[in-house]
Amino acid sequence: MTGILLSGCNGKMGKAVTRCVAESTDCKIAGGIDIFTEASAGYPVFSAPANVTNDITEKVDVIIDFSNPAALSGLLEYAVKNSIPAVISTTGLSDSQINLIRDASKKIPVFFSANMSLGVNLVCELAKKAANVLGDSFDIEIVEMHHNQKIDAPSGTALMIADSIKEELDNGVVYEYDRHSKREKRTKKEIGIHAVRGGTITGEHQVIFAGLDEIITISHSARSKELFATGAVSAAKFICGKPAGLYKMSDML
Questions:
Q1: Is 200 a residue whose pLDDT tops 80?
Q2: Angle between helix 118-134 and helix 156-169 axes, rounded to 10 deg
Q3: Residue 135 parent element (H or E)
Q4: Per-residue confidence at 41, pLDDT binned at 50, 70, 90?
Q5: What angle do CA 9, 111, 109 make, to 5 degrees?
Q6: Which residues pair with 88 in a beta bridge?
Q7: Residue of 28, 107, 150, 242 marked active site
Q8: I need a surface site. Which of 25, 38, 79, 208 has the fewest CB within 10 A?
Q9: Catalytic site residue 106?
Q10: Mean pLDDT of 215-241
């Protein structure tokens, strides 16, 4: 039985993970971390990693993080100190915070992905393949759409897709977030990234390859948060027992 410490347990994604684990027979949530410490799901909830006490009766084998970027440093410190593997699913992280993840992965196994969906990770691979075949003869634009409560923009998933394409092209690609602020033609080195916020959209991503007289579009539509929760729980079970290192979805697949 895999014991999970769930960071951000009272948020929307935390509750989705709780529901997912409740339907599983091989894992259990030992405790939660959230600034709102209401414990309504049958496990103790603590306001911060440093406050986790012996009230947790189940053994903690792995941490799943769906919280806030501000909580990352303390969570990684706790994970490293207690030699607990971590699945980091929080988005909107800065470069310095991503470096913290890399540093932690030298001491413990860390699974880090901006998106826990199998379909989205397949989109990344397809986009890489398309970029390789099409080269610089097609312009590349990424459009992402999310609900009106999402704070970060562009989404971590959009950046993950862009990074996959940039890795494949490796030709001085730059990301363009703010084209309306200048009056000049689009360059071949740009990947345009656009964010839409509205309603209750769970997550939509389109990668547009626009060439001469033809357009190729690769898209993914998430219909519920449960698919991300399922991916995070699978990652948690996958990473238990692994040596220190930085893992991603392609390693699990």
A1: yes
A2: 30
A3: none
A4: confident
A5: 110
A6: 65, 112
A7: 150
A8: 25
A9: no
A10: 93
pTM equals 0.79
> Which candidate in 146, 166, 205, 220 is catalytic?
146
- Hunting for tokens 């699990």 — which residue is that? 252
CB atoms within 10 A of CB 55: 12
From 115-119, 188-192, 239-243, the region with the lowest mean pLDDT = 115-119
Active site includes 185? no
Q: Count CB atoms within 10 A of the CB of residue 182.
A: 7
Instruction: Give 105-163 pLDDT, tens digit per residue.
Output: 999 999 998 788 888 989 999 999 999 999 889 999 999 999 999 988 999 899 999 99
Q: Which amino acid belongs to residue 133?
A: V
Asked if 38 and 250 count as a contact pair (C-beta separation under 8 A), the reply is no
The Cα-based distances of 19 to 16, 113, 226, 239 in angstroms read 5, 21, 8, 21
Task: Tell me if residue 26 falls in helix, strand or coil.
Answer: coil
Reported as a pLDDT band with limits 50, 70 and 90, residue 178 is confident
Cα distances from 74 to residues 89, 162, 249, in angstroms, run 15, 29, 24
Amino acid type, 247: Y
pLDDT at 187 (0 to 100) = 87
Residues in the chain: 253
In three-state secondary structure terms, 134 is helix
Q: Where are any strands of DSSP class E within the chain?
A: 2-7, 27-33, 45-46, 62-65, 86-88, 109-112, 139-146, 174-176, 190-197, 203-211, 214-222, 245-247
Which tokens belong to 90? 């929080």
